[in-house]
Amino acid sequence: MAENNIIPYGINKKKKVKKITPRKKKFADKLLAGANQTQAAKSVGCTDASAAQQGHKWATSDLSVRNYLLSEMEKVGITDPYVAQKMKEGLESLTKPLKEGGKRYEDGFVRKQYLDMYFRLTGMYAPEKSEHTKKTIVLNMTPQFIEGLIDTGKIDEAEAEVLEAEIIRE
Prior knowledge:
Layout: H1 22-32, H2 37-43, H3 48-61, H4 63-75, H5 80-91, H6 108-122, H7 143-151, H8 157-165
Helix pairs in contact: 1-2, 1-4, 2-3, 7-8
């Protein structure tokens, strides 16, 4: 495959892929060297506060980075057929015999891990559901409490009027 024509699974093939920038190339090289997304992002100048989010975005959504990673992996022989063969070997794994010449059994634990990886790679898991919980906090503010807030400078007279006029609904 040509370096700039690799289209990762699940990507819109009509979208043009921009050439990778030197900063993103350095980020991708750090990933290939074993750094995690956050460490790689920090190494190219992302702040501690933004490194995790930016690293994840580049590694999962930036086509130039994904193309570069796939191209570099292909250069060292990590191709789709190679990965498929290794997945097949994992799915057919057997336990080590307990003694020399002993019987080997299907290794359910290892097979489960390979199935899990396959399902994740192909998107076969259902999307994770997230529950949103609505929480209500009720503050019972007495006139003395509001006066205390005014006296300490936490709120001014106008804000106090808003608090006193607020209607509480349950």
